[in-house]
Amino acid sequence: MRSRRALLVVPALVSLALATAACSGSPSDGPTAAASAPPTVSGTIQFWHFFTDREADVIQGVVDDFEAANPGVKVVVKSGQDDQKMRQAISAGQPIDVGLSYSTDQVGPLCSSGDFTDLASFIERDKVDLTQIPDTVLGYTEYKGKRCTMPALADVYGLYYNKKLLADAGYTAPPKTLAELTDMAVKLTTFKADGSIKTLGFMPLLGYYENAEAHWAPSADAQWLNEDGTSAISGSPGWTTLLEWQKDLIAKLGGYDKLAKFQAGLGEEFSAQNDFQTGRVAMNLDGEYRTAFIDDQAEDLDYGTAPFPSAQGFESTYGGGYITGNIVGIGKGSTNPEAAWAFVKYLTTNTDAQVKLSNGLKNVPTMHDAIASPDLEVSPQFQTFLDIFENEHSATTPPSGIGAEYQTIFGTHTAKWQSGKETDLPAMLKTVDQEIDAAVQLQAGS
Amino acid sequence: MASAIRRRRTLTAYTFLAPSLLGMVIFFVFPLIMTVVYSFTAFDLSNPPRWNNFANWKFLFGGDPLIGQAALNTLWFVAILVPVRIAGAMLVAWALTRARRSSGALRTVYYLPALVPPVASTIAFVFLLNPATGPVNRALAAVGIEGPGWFTDPSWSKPALVMLGLWVLGDIMVIFLAALLDVPTEQYEAAELDGANGVQRFRHITLPNMAPVLLFALITGVIAALQYFTEPAVASATAMGKSSVGAGTSQLLGWPDGSTLTYGQLLYSKAFGANLFGYASAMAVVLFLVAGVTTAVLLRRFSSFTPEVAS
């Protein structure tokens, strides 16, 4: 009798689980705009972001400005919240009105899941001028035509070079092509008596600081995904060009093992021991935020910045670079969507707010007006990144339903390629395609 | 009358058990069943899960290019890290029972590393074992030995994590120490009178008396190794010069060359990186089954090794 009762418990629990699974999540698209904009907004909104310490203070300054301009609104700020935590909270139904994410890789999941509401009705009603935002940036803040996020600030990548080390080697200007970069990197590299590398002209290994496939891609117009979300990697000649250039430079600098040993002794990226800041490497790929770190940690460093060199056959793309950035959206459980939208609009389309954020965080504003603003604090080195941002050849990684998984899959193969464990490049790129497509299919539910 | 009393006693027992039973159902049984259900669906955490025709399971056993490497790395830690930690803890505990002076201070010294948060201890180890600037390789170089790449070399990254595991063995050492001190001394005296040597005394007296504690250490160690996550993830990121885990470049997962990619890290990456919560659920079900079967086998295998059976 007792065992029969126990037997009944299992199907009961399974039935409950199935019923719960069927009811899990909410397929709703979240809040939409009222027919006409309210004359004033009021109430409380909850704002989650990932910044901490000094950077959180910069954000708070802009929040204070917004509250002063909208006396009826109280913004409750939750700082230090990473993307995973924010997504879990939104999915669990927490009333997060505004969320700020650090990763454009999250745009696909955030839009396709409905965690961030579609902003189209708000943008249309308030006639927001999206021409203020470059096309590349508009591209990485929407997914399959659904604009669920707006760009807050951007990170832009370019080449940093040590002027003194270049001058000592007889160079007066940074490289503009990858061939020039190779020649200069070889000439700028010095060795110790035991044959190990003492100082490096340029590190060609992926995984070193900001050396990532995505950050190199604009140099050869290398493409990631097709329109339908499947992999475009093997069909994009830019990848072959970049990876063969990398292999050549690795060989010219003494081989993978020598470079890996040099890499093992690197200083932490965001500390004063960063290899570029200490002069251990002469040229390095990095984001615009490095200018702030150098001001703070290595103010005597004599350095310049330039767009990352172009690959052979892609010289016309020189001037562009990789762009990514912070994104902001309205949670699907927002209880005060009008005030939330007012805040999102303030953060992303108000020139003064953008300038203040940029001056404080040393990131690139995402509006043309803010970039042209006389109030924007611009050093010659920082100006390079503003130019790259506005360049038509700048590119980003496309949003995908599988987040950054397509980059992860590619990365597992390029790691083998650079170490010499993979030698058949065309076959490797085909395998990358197959693996990405399998993940895309799995996410789509087939 | 008797049945009424029995019913009342049963009701009382269930009333007292209710809070923990409820906790079990809410926080263990129900999530477990939900995980099994999600493993047959495409699920993005926000929208209702959709049945996907066993696609997660097919991908798990024939499509995921990283699952083999992650499983092998994890099994390596189960096979090497767990026994090494148990043997090391046993040796230290035995040595501490022999200490005639400062035994309290020595116990504290050996236990203290276990109190250090795993993230901090891992970062400290990466700095100590930095092949270019770390004191370990400098000391080795001083005596003419070229030190390995440790966390930056695919061949040495796992052994380096085992060394870290040995440093923080205080948690099981303190249990072994208590068990060793609990072994009746008259048994050793009787064995000595019978002419048993040290190895025989260890095999026939120490081990059987410690069997329950050893079994506990083995089972909890195996389960922890199957779920190994924090130390390899932090070691990869720190050795690459990154200050964050989870976000960052595509090369971060299991760096160097996938050598520290564990099953737990891959599961996390599939769920929160690739948005494949259904697939991650299938991975979690497999992990649960492997842990359950391993525990059952160990319990059965070691049932003949309890003091009662062994004596």
Automatic annotation (TrEMBL), chain A:
Lineage: superkingdom: Bacteria
Keywords from the named record: Signal, Transport
Entries under InterPro entries matching the protein: SBP, TAT_signal
Listed Gene3D superfamilies: Periplasmic binding protein-like II (3.40.190.10)
Signal peptide: 1-21
CDD domains cross-referenced by the UniProt entry: PBP2_UgpB
Family assignment from sequence similarity: Belongs to the bacterial solute-binding protein 1 family.
PANTHER family: MALTOSE-BINDING PERIPLASMIC PROTEIN (PTHR30061), MALTOSE_MALTODEXTRIN-BINDING PERIPLASMIC PROTEIN (PTHR30061:SF50)
Name of this protein: ABC transporter substrate-binding protein
Organism: Cellulomonas edaphi
TrEMBL record, chain B:
Lineage: superkingdom: Bacteria
Transmembrane domains' residue ranges: 21-43, 75-97, 109-129, 160-181, 210-230, 276-299
Keywords, alphabetical: Cell membrane, Membrane, Transmembrane, Transmembrane helix, Transport
Predominant subcellular localization, coarse grouping: membrane
Pfam family, one: BPD_transp_1
Cell membrane in keyword set: yes
Domain ABC transmembrane type-1: 71-298
PROSITE patterns: ABC_TM1
Compartment list: Cell membrane
Membrane topology per record: Multi-pass membrane protein
InterPro entries assigned to the protein according to its UniProt record, in alphabetical order: ABC_transporter_permease (IPR051393), MalF_N (IPR035277), MetI-like (IPR000515), MetI-like_sf (IPR035906)
SUPFAM superfamilies membership: MalF N-terminal region-like, MetI-like
Family: Belongs to the binding-protein-dependent transport system permease family.
Name of the protein: Sugar ABC transporter permease
